[in-house]
Design brief:
The chain is α/β, with parallel strands linked by helices. It contains six helices and four strands; from the N terminus they run H-H-E-H-E-H-E-H-E-H. Helices cover about 40% and strands about 10% of the residues. Strand 1 (about 30-35), helix 3 (about 40-45) and strand 2 (about 50-55) form a beta-alpha-beta unit. Helix 1 packs across helix 5 (about 90-100).
Length: about 130
């Protein structure tokens, strides 16, 4: 097994990963969906309505409730963050990184945006700017 496969396996062992349907239900209950895909990919594939748009390299700073650069929604360590990428690989590593910050309710979507679309869940044309 490659080193990255081992890292991914270890990251996923720490998460309670969710299906797209479970993610959509969690968002309705107050969880925050964060789409970490690059703008060009969102422009080509689409976006989930209401998702926070944030490219991967800013995730920890925006979700950490102790950071001066945090989202207004990052009020404490009990926020339920659901990370979405294209296919559900990068999001697992990103959600595990949020766990390292003490955000233990963070998880990701199994299969990513591809699975979201395949499940027939809402999407819209993409390419909007990430949140500042």
């Amino acid at each position: 097994m490659s080193a990255i496969d081992e890292l991914l396996t270890a990251a996923r062992a720490r998460l309670d990963r969710v299906t797209p349907e479970q993610a959509a239900a969690a968002v309705e209950q107050g969880a925050l969906l964060v789409d970490i895909r690059p703008r060009a990919l969102r422009a080509a594939q689409g976006e989930v309505p209401g998702a926070l748009l944030l490219e991967r390299n800013y995730l920890e700073w925006r979700c950490d409730p102790t950071s001066d650069a945090r989202f207004p929604e990052a009020v404490d360590t009990d926020v339920a963050w659901i990370v979405l990428c294209q296919a559900g690989f990068t999001s697992s590593l990103a959600a595990a990184s949020l766990h390292d910050l003490g955000l233990h309710r963070a998880t990701d979507v199994i299969g990513g945006f591809e699975a979201w679309q395949a499940a027939g869940l809402p999407s819209q044309p993409g390419g909007g700017p990430p949140r500042p």
